[in-house]
Design brief:
It contains two helices and no strands. By secondary structure, it is mainly alpha-helical. It has one domain. Helix 1 packs antiparallel against helix 2.
Length: 76
């Protein structure tokens, strides 16, 4: 449970920290903050869909194993 909480906090806080890191304190003509914020938002979207796919896939595999176990118990 702690690992899940840590992953959620990192997903929430890390993009802001990374975007801050790429924002130069003085105007040097190059600022990557917008590109970094965009890429971090895409990363969060990919993580969300990966989480959804993992939940759906895990439920599917668990259902298959339960059915197989039920058939094995009926054969005994």
């Amino acid at each position: 449970m702690g690992a899940l909480l840590g992953a959620l906090l990192a997903s929430w806080l890390a993009p802001k920290g990374i975007a801050w890191y790429f924002d130069p304190p003085v105007n040097i003509g190059v600022n990557c903050r917008e590109a970094t914020e965009w890429s971090m938002s895409r990363l969060l979207i990919a993580q969300f869909w990966g989480l959804i796919a993992g939940v759906v896939g895990s439920l599917g595999v668990a259902t298959l194993f339960r059915r197989k176990r039920a058939r094995m118990n009926q054969d005994l």
